[in-house]
Sequence to fold (213 residues):
Amino acid sequence: MDNKSKKQIWTFVLICGVLSVVSYLLHDIIGAAHYPGYRWTEQAVSDLTATDAPSFAVASDIITVYKILTCVCYAYLCFLIASERKMLRIGIYLFAIMHVISAVGYALFPLTGSGYDGSTQSFIHVYVLTTLIVMLSIASLILIAIGSFRGEHRLLGILAIVALVAMFFGAVGSQSVPKAYFGVAERFSTYSATAFTGVLAVYGFAKMRSKED
Fold:
């Protein structure tokens, strides 16, 4: 395989990271359209893939595409950053691991009912997996921000801080805002992690181009 073909393949792989953001948004929009009475301002995104939700089938199919696109992007991105500063590299590795845990864990333990129904499966989903994913997200974004500022990626560091602030706002807000706006606050957390994948994909493009120069 010549270098041009390899470049086209790796470019497509990184585009998967951008497409993953689009697919996550589509799962939210299309899933809600198949869930009569769903109120996005009040309900969590994960309600769309609860096993008893009317939107379960369609939302789960789209979120599966999202997970595949995300994992494909990170598989190459982790290879691409092998020469980066240690702190930035570890931060991106942790962020990739977080997405893998999210993809596998939430597939194995989806909500059994919208909201929280008290079942063991829902307990693992809400309190075990979500807690682990949030902790990994926070730790990875902090490392990415510090590593970026120490290197030559100031913009990446700023965007990592923006994602981190949005995640904190979502975590705190979902516990403190009125129930009618729980879904709004919760989406700050979910979309900050999702959107940052797109940011890292663009960073990957820049990294790949710098290696060519």
Observations:
- Helices lie at 3-33, 56-80, 86-108, 120-150, 154-176, 182-212.
- Residues 3-33 form the longest helix (31 residues).
- The mean pLDDT is 89.
